[in-house]
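As a warm-up, study this chain.
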Amino acid sequence: MSGQDGNRGYLIQSIIALLESLNDNDWTTVTIEADHISDKVDVAWQGIKGTKVSQVKSSINQISKSNAVKWASELKEQSKANEYILILVGPCSQSVAKMGSYNTVLIPCPKNMDINGLLREACHLLAIFLEKNSIYAQSFLHREAMANALVTKLSTFASHGISLSRYDFVNLLRDWCSSVSRDTNYMWEQVSFEHQRGLENAIAGRRLGPSDVIHCPELSICNEIKTELDRSHLYWITGNKGCGKSITAWQVAKKFYDEGFIVCRPDYSSEPAKLLKSLVNDSNKILVIDDAQQYSNDFISRLSERACSTLKIIFTSTFIDFNIPSPALISPSLANKEIQNALIKRRSEVLPIVQSFDDDISDSYMGTSLENRLIQCSTQKSPWEFFWVLRGGWKTARKEFERIQQITNANLIISIIAARQISSCDAGISISRLIEYTETEGVKPQEFDKAISQLESLGLITISDDILRTKHISYADRLISECFNSKNYNSWPASVDMVLKILLDDTVGLEGVYWLLQSIDLTDATRFESKKLWLSMLNPLKTRCKQEWKQSEWAIGCYYYLIRFFDISSEELNSDEEHLLQWFTSGFGRKAIFSQEIANHLINLGNRIEPNLSSEQVKRLFEKVDSDRLVRLANEISVSDFYSFGELINRLTYFHPTWVENFLLSFDWSRIAKLINKTIPEYRGSVDKLIESVFLLTNLGKEKIDYRYVTDSKPFIIKCYEADPINAVNAFTGVFWRCLGFYPHFLRGGRNPTTQQLNIAKDIVSKLSPELMAKAMYNLVSRDLENLARSLSVISEIDECFIQNLLVKLDQNRFNKSINTDWKKQSDELQHLISFFGVKSKKEPARSWISLNRDNIEGALHPIFIGLAPEIAIEFFTDGTQLKLFDKENRWHDTVFALASLAEHDENTSIEIVEKYFDEIEDSLYKLTLDPPHLILIFFRIIHSLSIDLFSRLVCRINLEDPRALKTINQLNKTQEKERKNYLKLARLAMGLGGEIANLGQSLNDKLKNNKKG
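Now compare it with the structure written out below.
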């Protein structure tokens, strides 16, 4: 370590000691370089709760997870304390940022290696500390000087091993503040906008101020406010908490700052009268009075009188009882839409920030896209909620629910608030009603007041006009999940009783009841035997559903959850038959969705091994459906209801009732076909579902298949492709899979599309332009690669020339550059796609693409890339870079392909590769695979062809008494009957080969047979 590095390390250590000391209220003494505890302890705090020790690690180089684990382990093992914390300063990998803790050692999110930034944070914490201890500091500059002085003081103490008591620390600050002359006027703090934070501050939900004006999206209202201030000098922005008042005011102020105005705000501790007296209009100024509701009407009036061309004033406040002249109300819906549009334009900047909070957001096929999350954000009630949803704020519910257990009755109270918020469809619960609930649970008034106060101060609940809510409806839903987690089993009786009271309260609307039933569904408290806890709601709630369904479609949804929770007996089905038949034909939308869910559940109940309800009884029920009413619905349907109605028809005709023929005769398909071909591509999923449903209904059990539903919809399918060539074909799974037979091969059961199906499919694909697809391939994310692969799997089977025609139109270099990130990480989506571009004997152009991206690929080369470009794989191996013979799903198809390609290209190096990866091969052989057994035999044959000695050594390594092998064999014998039979086939295939592998096959055969008997 250089002298400069060492000095920086000691300086950071002192700053961190200061930050933690200012932020922690429980310490009585602090010691830097606490060698008396351990040489691994940089800072130690003693207090009532015991000893807290920390190690501070800073580096200009990236800190890895292995570093963090090592340091945390050393701190824990080599020191004795009640609390351990590892504080990291400097660049860190994403895995480190997400650690949180290791072996009970807290590892907070790492801090940036920014000395000035750390000192600014110290100034902010010092201001809070001074205020809590009633110490007056005259200005920001004063606090800044004290923060720097404290760092120096702590460094001095560290060099002598001296501890500093909290009492002396506070007195030191008092002395410094009292020694400064108060003659200078620091009532108005000047704002410079020099220090700017990134967008992460807004996404994190922090309070926004002058340091956020550059990176936060600017609302259009800013220009309106600027124009008004230019002509009338005073403006008032008002609205609810979190609507964006403060940042809007500061962004407007920045516009004046750029024109030469001085921007000022009141010092936080200044008295209003002194603020007025000290205000000097000696230059162009703009004052920002944020949170003006904290000032008196007299102060606001007097200050407003001072507004003029050289003294502009912006007030912000929540709604107050004061005559505000022409206030600006920020429209939450407009603000959210503008923020959404701004963030979409900054996608590359926004995505990694959001992912640091919520790793569900990604471009992968199974991830949630940033675009979809932003759409969800745009529907929220305020910009604060926008950013809360953006960062997946509900994910903190589990930790927060656990942490508030130390507050008496806090878990019960917040659970009641959450349940009432859900059951009121986000309206919340009044304080008086909440008191009624808590009193029945024995909560004392003083305990109630304290818990409410602490929950509000923690930001877990909000109170507005005596109405309480959690911070978001999604958060309320997560709290209910935590409430009924098995970890909180001891509190279930009180929690179940509380929720039952709400569910059985007739003043709660059935929509709210449905929402609450949905929240408790799939929790530990509604599974298996635990369902009995809720049994008292069954009859009264079912009765209410049957009485109120004409007034509320939610009654049908609630009924569905009741039979989902408690099933339904033969007698109950007979009793409810009349209502069920009415519901099945009652309408579209939710009525149809809820009805099909009921129908589907009844089918599943009838198909159980030991059913309480016979399949025959369900069949008889569906036979009684009023087909005339169903026809009337079908012939009145609009495109938006295609999906729900298609699902309903699909379920009601499961047993092919006799009324199907009459339904089809009366069904006005010509009207539907016209609607389809006039509609917009956004409805492709709904159209696909209806086509699939009526096609299957029409052709069930018939030899001559009627394809008119597909052929009549061809113009719409082509229109959808032209609008979105990448995703369209994959979106029509009903058409291409169910109607035309182009299922994925593993789902076909040996059946292939008929000549008629192939001809219809060819007619559609012939109208799909390869050029349009090529143009769409230059701006793809991982998710799009998967959809493209799925589309091409269908298209290429229908028209084998399509991909060649596509390549003629495709700028391959441009395409490869556009998916640079996928090449770097060898994404699953790219692995799926690339196989469609390497099917010929030379495996081109996939082979060339891999070569082109050779230096871009990070990590071990995956099997599909080894198989397509064995020469690149051998280069990797020769250079010492890892290869991956098995993917994470242990699929043998790609492994066999990779090994066969390697063997064909270079036998000698292939032998070396197999020898190096013997352990990996052996481990994979012990793991359960769902692949056809002959693939493993092919793998062995390839190795045998490479070297008999290599083959013998591999076979000798395999030990069926190995715990890994026994685990798989036990799993096969107990729960995987279909796979067990496949492994028996593998054993018999091996037995037929003779030699050592035949003995191995015999041993496997015996274990699978004997264990099954046992």
